[in-house]
Amino acid sequence: MRTSEQQGVLLYAFTCGHITLPMSFFLDGEPGKARVPACVFLIDHPKGLVLFDTGFSDRFVGMEKGLGKIVDMPDGANISDRLKAIDVDPGQIDYIINSHLHIDHAGGNHMLPNATIIVQTPEWDFGLSGEDSAYDKVDFDLGQPVKRIDGEHDLFGDGTIVIFSTAGHTPGHQSVRVRTATGEAVLAADCCNMRRSLDEMHLPDHCYNVDQYRGSLETLSRLRRAGAQVFYGHDPEFWSQVPQAQELDLNTLPPA
């Protein structure tokens, strides 16, 4: 972790479970199934520790029925254990930026008791509505402080961690631009499941709002053309090339 000599923003990646779903869930019309990671990021800023998403809950460990048939959550893969493995106390996490509140993105929130959750207002309201079974309030409605935002939000006011709306997958999906010493990262989550999603403007077979989803992909495309490194939300091939649990150097990652 950070030493007294290190300045700026440090970025780390973790896998916190996998899920197996039809490939069309990620790319409309594609056959077969895909086993994809639940991707989590730690952003170490001089003013605080921030997580972007928290993966699956540890309640899935050992589960063989229901969602346990498609969710693979090994013991020790939860975000709390991932943080402890790099000497980070989960109780010291200041903020959780949930891209959205689906079970593979907010499942570890309960392990971070002192964190403030940052979520777009439409996402919070929709998650509480009970209209979509991909949300489970046991993951996110925990009494933690919740900061509801609408649109773009510069977390520390210095341009290094900027949250922006990427609606379409859900009503209030959001992504994050992170400026590090080695470049700008865009943590896309489910507004861009695969590299092919962006290369081909290829949408999934389900969207809360198709027009918004396409617009979010267009936003990511502009950022990628400007030189940002996009982290695709569920791309197993791309993710296999992302170093885990160590400071990321964007210059060493696969071409965006």
List the helices and strands and how they pair.
Elements: E1 10-22, E2 33-45, E3 48-52, E4 71-72, H1 79-84, E5 95-97, H2 103-106, E6 116-120, H3 121-129, H4 137-140, E7 146-149, E8 153-154, E9 161-165, E10 174-180, E11 183-189, H5 195-199, H6 210-225, E12 229-232, H7 236-239
Parallel strand pairs: 3-5, 5-6, 6-7, 11-12
Antiparallel strand pairs: 1-2, 1-4, 2-3, 8-9, 9-10, 10-11
> Judging from the principal axes of the Cα atoms, what is the shape?
globular
**Head-to-tail CA distance between termini:** 26 Å
Q: Name the CATH architecture.
A: 4-Layer Sandwich
- Might you state the CATH topology name? Metallo-beta-lactamase, Chain A
Q: What amount of the residues lies in strands?
A: 25-35%
| Rg of Cα set | 17 Å
Largest sheet: 7 strands, mixed
Major β-sheet strand ordering: 4-1-2-3-5-6-7
Low-confidence residue ranges = none
Q: Element order, helices and strands? A: EEEEHEHEHHEEEEEHHEH
* Count of beta strands: 12
Q: Tell me the helix content.
A: 10-25%
CATH superfamily annotation? Ribonuclease Z/Hydroxyacylglutathione hydrolase-like
Output the structural class.
Answer: alpha/beta
Protein name: Glyoxylase, beta-lactamase superfamily II
Family: Belongs to the metallo-beta-lactamase superfamily.
Domain Metallo-beta-lactamase: 37-234
Keywords: Hydrolase, Metal-binding, Zinc
